Amino acid sequence: MEAADLLCDSLFRWMENRKKCAEELLELAQELENVHQGSTSILAVTTAAGLTSAVFISIFTEGLALPLLAVAAGIVSIITGVVNEANSRSTFKKSIELIKEDKKVGMSIQKQLQDLKDRCGGAKLGDHADELECEVTTQLMGALARRDNTHIPLDFLRDFNRATVFRHMTPGGVAPAEASRFICQALNLISSPEITSSLKVSAKEMVENIGCIGIKEAVKAGSRVPSAIGLGICVYDLIVTCEELVKDNRVTEASKLLRDSAREILEGRQKLKEQLDAMQEIIQKLFQMKNLIKDLGEYSLSLTENGQNIMAYIMGTCTDNEVVSWLRELTHQIEFVNLLRFYLERLSCILPDLSTPDGDHIDIVFVAHGRIVDQFMPAGGLVPTPNIIDTILYSPWNCSIDSRAAFGIAQGFIQVTDREFYNTSNMLYCEPNPLPNRWNSMQRSLHNIPGILLSPLTPEEEAWTFFLLNNGGLFTKDCVVIPYVVPQNMVNAFGAIPLYILIFLSSFILMLYGKTATVHLAACLGRAGSPPRPVEWRRQYAYTSDETHMTMSMDDFRHISSRLLNALRSLFDSEES
User: Which pTM does this prediction carry?
Assistant: First the structure.
């Protein structure tokens, strides 16, 4: 986002300018003390007063101090202890013009921050909404990553922020303290109850500090410099104060004010620098985590150290209670990491390298043995935002599919009007009534759905060899077919998994690639011995009687190669309801 990049650049320029400013203030303070110690006349004092204005204005105008020699010369020309009123007005007039240039620095940061908030939805969310602060922080971290030429998806940064400082915005998953502990472990950070203390940074506080830059803070003569001066010092007030002190021959107080100002400026600058440095550290840690996932290595029947770190990060960032509950078992964690390896292998043919996300949308078709169980969950659990746009189920509940329907789903040409239903016991047509004139979209559904379990193809099945050897031919530019095929030497590492786990895994990987997807399921949804729940099934979509299959006419697709269709026949046409 351009607004975040502009703000990021301004902050670094501002910090560099403030560093020079503090150095000049300290030098000026020393000069004033030297002048005061060696002065023997009123002229020396008034000259020092003029130089105070000149040098101080130069500090805060980022090099716009060419007229300062003239200012200094005008002061030096004063030959009495009384400041000429006309010259004084002229000096302040020039000072004010130069101060306006200085104010542009802080005002530009304010404008860029507000522009960033607006682009993040500030008008809609409100200036103090946590959602807005989270998005502003995410965008600023994205700008820091781009500044360092680190390619890391914004969704990855956003999930981290939501899981730490802004955890309460997305209830679910593990408790905030536990999430912080998991993430600290995964990213090799110092473990602590709260992630903010381990990072020594609060995202909210950082945004608030940026918001202080350029805001006027009055500096009263004789008073200690307020702490906010480090971020929002008012140049005009400091010029007036220092000049008045010097004219009153209170050079020591003027010098102390300059030294205190320099110290406060450096402290404010250092605080913001530490916060930006902490953000950059997190960005690098997340980048390492992304590469760790990419280079996970071979299948394993145990949880390796890399696998443990990945699971710790996922447990810390996931806000889906169903997913977190399933992943608490060690056997499921091992299975999940192996599924991650499996998934990366299948997507390697269609997705670009992780370091070059292109933001395209793809279609993913899962092919597997399937069944429904007597447990219900919200349909939205199969549409984890923002990477999964929708999950489409094709058959009614308690209905199987044959190879023709599976082929149409896998190839993407099945239409609602093409579907037909028959009973395997008598081969009679038996369309459910009522039957919606649409596919079962999870994104559009407001009701609970039965749990769906997917089982893998094993080496004993005829279709296994085809899918294992021909996976490279099951994808196009924007669609990939992923059969749930168990590697030959890892049969014990895979089993029946809930569809929502596979969907969550898809969303997680797509986040790393910077892509979105629509998921399609080519699997049977028969109840396989689970109790019938016709009332709930019909409320959500539709259902069929036992032993019902959905098929489609293939008369118009005779020219299509039958190799995939033959494999699907061995997989689906032999299945029992």
Answer: 0.79
